[in-house]
From TrEMBL:
UniProt region (Disordered), positions on chain: 1-25
GO molecular function: N-terminal protein N-methyltransferase activity; protein-lysine N-methyltransferase activity
HAMAP family: Methyltr_EFM7
Known function: S-adenosyl-L-methionine-dependent protein methyltransferase that trimethylates the N-terminal glycine 'Gly-2' of elongation factor 1-alpha, before also catalyzing the mono- and dimethylation of 'Lys-3'.
Any one of the GO CC terms: cytoplasm
The gene coding this protein: EFM7
One Pfam family of this chain: Methyltransf_16
Keywords: Cytoplasm, Methyltransferase, S-adenosyl-L-methionine, Transferase
SUPFAM superfamilies to which the protein is assigned, alphabetical: S-adenosyl-L-methionine-dependent methyltransferases
PANTHER family given in the database record: HEPATOCELLULAR CARCINOMA-ASSOCIATED ANTIGEN, PROTEIN N-TERMINAL AND LYSINE N-METHYLTRANSFERASE EFM7
Lineage: Eukaryota, Fungi, Dikarya, Ascomycota, Pezizomycotina
Enzyme Commission code: 2.1.1.-
Designated name of the protein: Protein N-terminal and lysine N-methyltransferase EFM7
Compartment annotation: Cytoplasm
């Protein structure tokens, strides 16, 4: 274009002030441990599945773990699947796990936020280098997770799975990950803890457990806890179910250990 044909666009392509919605400021939440410590985490995003809330299952998992820390956690290798803000993982590291690997879907913002929360808890963990963060998609190869285990370890002693069975189509991938990460030992356990936030889908959610049994596991229901209030007040469905946290232990079936 000749110089005389050029023209000044001025601010034609400049968006006016306020054109875009501002990014929401990050919020923080606290989990109060039974021993008096407080775990503070940053929440991320606008979608509850991506960690902008502390869900009842995560809090309940953390208390359940703390009550049994001496036998369940101390000196053990722990993997959390679907960690979101990561409270159970952080509590596990505080309670003396040998290794804790905090994982969730490999979305950069979500992984960065888990890393932020792990760093935020450094002063509360006797061995901060025991807590690791990794993006992981259920059903994918598990070698990146095993890379954090100490030499000679053949799997994780404990899997924490809080509010992950809501995704019904992912049940086979969750089972695959369980089979490939849970150490083959009678003492190894996966803790599956959830609330039916959509109660009418509970029968589909519960199909996870017979599927686990078909794939070499033994399922035991360990508790049913009624919370003081629902997490999402305006949601439809049976209020009592939406206030209830269900807990299950999943261990290797005996024939898988022989």
């Amino acid at each position: 274009m000749a110089e005389e044909d050029s023209f000044d666009t001025g601010d034609m392509f400049q968006e006016p002030e306020g054109f875009y919605e501002p990014e929401p400021e990050p919020t923080f939440a606290e989990h109060h441990m039974l021993n008096g410590q407080t775990v503070r985490v940053r929440l991320v995003g606008s979608h509850p599945l991506y960690g902008n809330l502390l869900w009842n299952a995560g809090r309940t998992s953390s208390h359940y773990i703390e009550e049994r820390a001496s036998t369940l956690i101390e000196g053990k290798d722990v993997l959390e699947i679907g960690a979101a803000a990561g409270v159970p993982s952080i509590v596990t590291a505080i309670l003396g796990a040998r290794t804790t690997v905090m994982t969730d879907y490999p979305d950069p913002d979500l992984v960065e936020n888990m890393r932020y929360n792990a760093n935020l808890a450094t002063s509360q963990i006797a061995n901060p280098s025991s807590l690791h963060v990794e993006g992981y998609k259920w059903g994918n190869p598990v070698e990146p997770l095993f890379a954090y285990l100490p030499t000679g370890a053949t799997g994780f002693d404990v899997l924490i799975m809080a509010d992950v069975v809501y995704s019904h189509r992912e049940h086979p991938n969750l089972i695959k990950t369980m089979r490939e990460t849970l150490k083959r030992s009678k003492d190894s356990v996966a803790l599956v803890i959830f609330t039916p936030y959509e109660p009418w889908l509970l029968p589909k959610t519960e199909k996870f457990f017979p599927l686990a049994e078909e794939n070499g596991f033994r399922v035991t229901k360990i508790f049913e806890k009624l919370m003081d209030a629902v997490l999402f007040e305006n949601d439809p469905g049976d209020e009592r179910l939406r206030r209830t946290v269900f807990g299950y232990e999943i261990r290797w079936a005996e024939e898988e250990l022989n």
